[in-house]
Each structure stands twice: as C-alpha cells, then as structure tokens.
Amino acid sequence: MASIHKDPRGKSPFWYCAYRLPNGKRTFRSTKLTDRKKAEEFCHRLEYASHESKAGRLIETRARELISEIVEHATGEPLRNFTAEEWLQEWLKGKRAAKAEATFLKYANAVKGFLASLGPRAKLNVNQIALRDVHRFQQGGQVFKHL
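Request: output the structure for the sequence above.
Response:
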C-alpha cells in the first residue's frame, strides 16, 4: 500500500511517496508537492502505474495517459501529447510570426515534404520519430537544414 511521508529531518517542504516498484522493491520518491491531498493522489497513481506495469498492462500509450493524469491533478493542466504532424504544425505557427514570409515558406515546404516522407508515421507520437526518419527524408533529395 502506497503512503506519503514528510522528510523526518525537515529538510524538504515536499511530501514523499513510498510504494512498491514492479519488481517488488519498495521505493521512496519525492512528489515535489506540498499539498497533502495532491501528494496522496499522486502517490496512489504512481502505485497504480507500478501495479499495471507488473501485470504487463502498462503499454506506452497507457503510461502517457497516467502521467498526463498525474500532472493534470497536480497542476490543473494535462500534458500535451503531440503527433509528429501536430507538433510540426504548431512549430510552423510560431515561425509564421517570427520569420520573413520567404523563410516561412521554405519551412512550410520542408515540413510538407517531411510529413509526406513519414507517411502514416506522421500520426505517431512525436517522440517516436527517429533520426533515421530525418535521414531518409534528407536522402530523398530534400534537406532539413533550417529546422
């Protein structure tokens, strides 16, 4: 059973979570939270994620959902999980305001070409896009220099 504790030496304002890792070992981690209720919720979600992992049910998508829930509960804001396409479109929006039109058009063209080279992989989480995807794009005759 997970539990929260204060640093007995009084050196930290944060609550600590004690729970079991998937391998059965007990661990003690800072929640980085000072609110007891939020720290308890955070701790229980950590324990739940550990339990799901041990049972073999914690796939990457579910892990991201749990982390987002934990962050949302602690901060009020969920984590944004971008696909490669979404992230590049957001990046382009920022460049539209910050760069000259000709530069922006070069960026937009490079992004369009890169997304085309990714094909269905453009719908994957941005962290699943690998350096080999960029190299494949570059070898296709297009250069991704300015990004």
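Helices lie at 36-54, 60-75, 84-98, 101-118, 131-139.
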